[in-house]
Amino acid sequence: MNAPMPMSKIIVRHADLRDPHENARIDAFVHDADGGTPFHLPRWLTAIERGCGQRAHMLLAERGGVIAGILPLTEMHSPIVGRALTSSGFAVAGGILSETAAATEALADAGWALAERLSCPEVELRGGSLPQNWQVHEGLYANFSKALEKDAETQLESIKRRHRAEVRKSLKNGLSFETGTSDHDRDRHYRIYATSVRNLGTPVFPRALFEEVLDGFGDDADIAVVSHEGEAISSVLTLYFNGRAMVYWGGGTFAARALRSNEFLYYSMMNHARDRGCHTFDFGRSKIGTGPYHWKKNWGFSPEPLTYAGRTADGAEARDMNPNSPKYRLQVALWRKLPLPIANRLGPWIARGLG
Predict the structure, then answer these.
(1) Integer Cα distance of 344 and 120 in angstroms
(2) Positive or negative, the Cα torsion across 165, 171, 174, 180?
(3) Are residues 131 and 182 in the same domain?
(4) What is the pLDDT of residues 308-323, one digit of tens each?
(5) Which residue has the higher pLDDT, 341 or 142?
(6) 266, 269, 330, 317: which is closest to 292 by C-alpha?
(7) Hey, is 316 helix, strand or coil?
(8) What is the model's pLDDT at position 320?
(9) Max alpha carbon distance in the chain (Å)?
(10) Residue range 117-132: average pLDDT?
């Protein structure tokens, strides 16, 4: 009887993100893998690099030439919070996507070795397979996702009673809903988003980031805009992946609240997602205990706690990326008072390193 062939050794290497064949192999792996997200795709990393100037890296773990795991990384540089390798940059998910514990450990080791070569004192993994002996971060964020109902009326009935009444009121406020990716759609979305984050005291991301994501994802992304009497007042950019609609960058003007425009926007988005053939609506990440966290629960969604992991060089402090941190309280208060043109001029230069 012949002895069994030994399993091939796992080899970790850098992927060539300029090679369409390489990217197609990675795309297929991500789409087939449990836990795959759009933030694992080469097109996400490339959009971040082009839109914000943060260098993209993709580590592949292969066994016998077959992909066994990937680690997408963004090389973040910020004069405010320092340097790090993040998986993935500007994303709420990412991390190691692998089939085995051996591939996970090999990718984690390679990611840390890369960080040392690049003088990055920290590696941050936003979910995914967690390596042993890395620091685990949990209890800060939760994600909200849920299967879409069979039709619009059933979707409405699935919302908690008190919040359902708010949605019903929004349907009587003369609001309109449309989706697209035209220059006009992009103009309106960026204006609304920039206004919204300024009001929250946060610098706005560069417009080029949104442009690159929309161009890179093509039919797998769009912009939804809600208008009242011809004036756009709420908007969101959504990614579509494996039957999931993932609302991502959204905001509203001051007028949106009184008109319950966000209720109208997200209820309409659920119906739009169903019409596109999606089976799941992903409401995204919120900090546990905050207003957005409770607002999403009122839609009938249950929080799913998120677990991240990281590793920091000896003697270095982990980056503090929480805008609600006491150390940023004064900066947030001052930013809210900036005139919008000034905030929009300064914000992208600051925010391009805060993903």
Answers:
(1) 29
(2) positive
(3) no
(4) 999 999 877 777 666 6
(5) 142
(6) 266
(7) coil
(8) 65
(9) 80
(10) 95
Q: Which of 162, 10, 99, 94 is nearest to 310 (CA)?
A: 94
Taking the C-alpha atoms of residue 225 and residue 200, their distance in angstroms, rounded to an integer, is: 20
Instruction: Report the CATH number at residue 347.
Output: 3.40.630.30
Residue holding tokens 């992927």? Answer: 15
Judge whether 288 lies within some domain.
no
* Residues 230-282 pLDDT 10s: 999 999 999 999 999 999 999 999 999 999 999 999 999 999 999 999 999 99
Give the orientation angle of helix 183-200 with respect to helix 340-351, to 10 degrees: 90
- How many structural domains does the chain have? 2
Residue 79 and residue 103 in one domain:
yes
CB 319 within 8 A of CB 84: yes
Residues with Cβ within 8 Å of residue 36, at least 6 apart in sequence: 29, 30, 97, 241, 242
143 in Cβ contact with 306 (< 8 Å): yes
pLDDT tens, 94-117? 999 998 999 999 999 999 999 999
Q: Are 149 and 301 in contact (CB under 8 A)?
A: no
Q: Looking at the structure, tell me whether residues 190 and 94 fall in a common domain.
A: no
Containing structural domain, residue 119: 10-140+307-319
List, in sequence order, every beta strand (DSSP E) within 158-253.
175-180, 221-228, 231-241, 244-252
Sign for the CA dihedral angle at 87, 129, 286, 43 comes to: positive
How many angstroms separate the CA atoms of 225 and 250, rounded? 10
